[in-house]
Every structure is written in C-alpha cells, then in structure tokens.
Design brief:
Elements (H helix, E strand, L loop, with lengths): L1 H56 L2 H36 L2 H22 L8 H23 L2 E3 L12 E8 L8 E6 L2 E3 L2 E4 L1 E7 L3 H19 L1
C-alpha cells in the first residue's frame, strides 16, 4: 500500500515537472517569436523611413532630371572610351613598327662606321678593292634609306639649318664667322622621323662667333674692374 502511494506521488511530480517544462518552452518560443516580430517591425520601419525621405527629397521631376544626368554622363564616358580605342587602334596601325625602325637605325650606323674604318686603313688607301667595297656600301646605304622612305621614315635635315631642340641635339660649338650663331655646321649622327614622331634626334655641331669668347672675357674684366673701383 505504501509503495503504491509513493509511486502515485512520483507520477504526479513527473507530470507537474513536464507541464512546467512545456510551459517554459512555450514561453521561450513566444519570446523568440516576439523578438523576431520586433526585429521585422524595426526593419520595416527603417525601410519606410528611407523611402519616405527619398520621396520627400526627390520629386518625380527631379528624379527624371537625375536619371537624365546619369544617362548623359554614361553616354559621354562611352564616347570617350570609343575615341580612345580608335586612337589606340590608329596608333597601332600607324606606328606598329616604331620599335623595329628604331633598332634598324643601328644598321645604318654600323655601315657608316665600317666605311670610315676602311677609309682610314692605310693598307687599303687608294686601292681598287677599297673603291669597290665603298661603292657596295653606298648601294646598301641607298637601298636602306629607300626602304625607310617607303615606310615613312625619313632623315632630319640638319646642315645649314637653325638648331631645333625638338629635332637636334647640339654636342659641340664650332667657331665660324660665316654662319649665324646657332646654325648647324656639322652632323655627327643623322636623326630620323617616322611620320610626325621622332625616332631619334640628330647629333650636331653648331656655329658661334669667333669673337664671342673675347667679348665674354672683356665683359668679365670690366665687371672685375668695376668691383675694384667700388671697393
């Protein structure tokens, strides 16, 4: 009898505990649901506020103007890109061989150096062999210049021209009263243009008056004498 009463008490206790746990679980779920609902409400409220501000700040007319401005900017950017691509394509077609042409100039330089070396060789001077070799060198030089010209590569005019910093590079000054100061009287290395682009400048010597050095010395002497007088 006592055992039965004890078992009944335990069963009632377990039932109570289960009911309490279910209630707690239900409350917990309700709290989670309430929290989720609150978060959704807050998010909706924020979105409503943003939309409300947007609608208040931009009227339909202003929104249309804004869209027109964005479209105009987009089209302008696309047009600029198209022009840039066209320019790059034209440059690639027009100046695609620029690097090769620049390197090919070394062949002309080496040919000229070989010619000078042979001309200065005492054992070959005034010989028929030298004459024939130089003739062949001249033919090769003319052929190369002809090929360059067909590809719009031409030498820069230098002798008796005024020094142009865009085309010439002065290495030395040569006293010459018969020429205007700054005139080119010697060409050390030929320069070349490829169409309107500089492949390399001409290396030149320019004229100066013979009395320029004396005039400069006289001016310095005069300055020194004036300083001594002031002291």
């Amino acid at each position: 009898m006592e055992k039965e009463q004890s078992n009944n008490k335990n069963e009632k206790s377990n039932i109570n505990d289960n009911s309490k746990s279910k209630e707690n679980l239900k409350e917990s779920k309700n709290e989670d649901i309430n929290n989720d609902d609150q978060e959704n409400l807050n998010e909706n409220k924020i979105n409503e506020d943003i939309n409300k501000d947007y609608q208040e700040n931009l009227s339909p007319e202003k929104e249309i103007e804004s869209l027109k401005d964005k479209l105009a900017r987009t089209f302008a950017e696309l047009e600029n890109q198209r022009r840039r691509f066209e320019k790059e394509k034209e440059d690639a077609f027009e100046y695609g061989g620029f690097g090769f042409a620049k390197e090919a100039l070394n062949l002309l330089d080496n040919l000229e150096r070989s010619k000078i070396s042979l001309e200065n060789d005492e054992s070959l001077k005034n010989s028929e062999t030298l004459k024939k070799v130089l003739e062949h060198f001249e033919i090769i030089n003319k052929d190369m210049l002809s090929i360059f010209k067909k590809n719009k590569i031409e030498p820069i005019k230098s002798i008796n021209e005024k020094l142009d910093p865009n085309l010439h590079q002065a290495l030395i000054e040569i006293e010459d009263d018969s020429k205007e100061p700054g005139s080119i009287v010697q060409e050390i290395q030929i320069g070349f243009l490829m169409k309107d682009r500089l492949l390399r400048p001409s290396l030149v010597g320019v004229s100066k008056k013979k009395n320029d050095a004396k005039t400069e010395k006289a001016r310095k002497d005069e300055e020194n004498s004036l300083k001594k007088t002031e002291n």
